[in-house]
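Lab intake sheet, docking and co-folding queue.

SAMPLE TYPE: protein with bound small molecule
LIGAND NAME: adenosine-5'-triphosphate
LIGAND FORMAT: SMILES
REQUESTED OUTPUT: full 3D complex as structure tokens
PRIORITY: normal
SUBMITTED BY: R.K., bench team

The fields below were copied directly from the construct record.
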Amino acid sequence: MTFLSNIFASNESGSPSNGVVGIDIGSSSIKVVELQERKGVITLVTYGEVQLGPYAAKPLGESVVLEARQEQEALVDVIRESAVKARGAVFAMPLSSSFVTNVSIEADADAELGAMVRVEARKVIPASLSEVTLDWAEVETTSAKDKKGEKTKRDILIAAIQNSALERFKVLMQFAGLTKPPTEIECFSAIRGLFDSDEENMVLIDIGAVSSKLYIARKGLLMRMHRIRAGGTIATKRIAEVLEIDFEEAEQLKYNANKGMDNFSDMKRAHNSSYDRAFREFNQVLREYEDKTGIKFSSVYLSGGGASFPGVDAHLKEVLGRDVVTANPFSKVAYPAFMEDTMKEIGPSFTVALGAALRLFE
Ligand SMILES: Nc1ncnc2c1ncn2[C@@H]1O[C@H](COP(=O)(O)OP(=O)(O)OP(=O)(O)O)[C@@H](O)[C@H]1O
Ligand SMILES: [Mg+2]
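RESULT FIELD (auto-filled):
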């Protein structure tokens, strides 16, 4: 319990002046962002990304499950190639080895929730409780009167990480010379990477290689999470089918796509069709949340590598009927002016890594 309990409240002390590296292990690539406090300003020191496909003899952009040795090699490579020197680190645990969900429990205001949450967790977590490290937080409470009197519905966010994954990542971090970095599930890093204290409510959609995630946060705290298997790797496969080319070529085309290309409209149609269902489901989750809470979301942030495909923002806007803002987490830190265009271009991919690093500056 103690290990995860600070994913909901992070206030451990670090030494940001010696640099902090945020590490995001995605299903297709590892991203790192190093930040340092310089004269009171959080400053970008370096960043880097390494594609995982080649470590398992697969093409770029392919999602892979690596063996421990390959994963270690990839992490060491990206740290070396991007010249990360930080002493401190924060590790963002992939949602794929975690489980985050909301449950609603009917209980009085003074009820001892711990035991009740474990009972609910047993029902919703697709693993035995002895195989996971569990944490939870109460996110909402609504009172409603019924025939039996006052009933209080307590909305609980449950987070669980497979113990085997915790162990695997612990070994990985040791291997990279990072002893016991603070660890949180990637959703918390992503929210921190974009949260602006002026915004009471925030929605973020992260399009990764394997899955797309929707996060709803209030005052920077995760309220709801929804994850769907739809992502860049699937889009590439669809493009490869439609254009009758292999995965590698399709990935290359997708990556370099621009609206002036000959086959752009075929590519775009194939691409968008891979996300239709996911976007519609996100819309439904948003509407349900709005109906329940009375909150209205006028815009959503879009991040993840998949956010970079031309026109994906317009497609999402059409389905959601809300403004879509492509994320630029680097706007939270200082960097040289000549890097402006690059930061905007690559920003969406680095939301998790940057948000993880920011944790030690709070
Ligand atoms: N400039 C780009 N244009 C189009 N697609 C891109 C671009 N950059 C990255 N992508 C796509 O984004 C996907 C990778 O996104 P990201 O790095 O966020 O995933 P991940 O973190 O590895 O995966 P996950 O979050 O699902 O574990 C790949 O499918 C890649 O092709
Ligand atoms: Mg990711």
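REVIEWER NOTE: The first helix runs from residue 2 to 5.
SIGN-OFF: pending second check by T.M.
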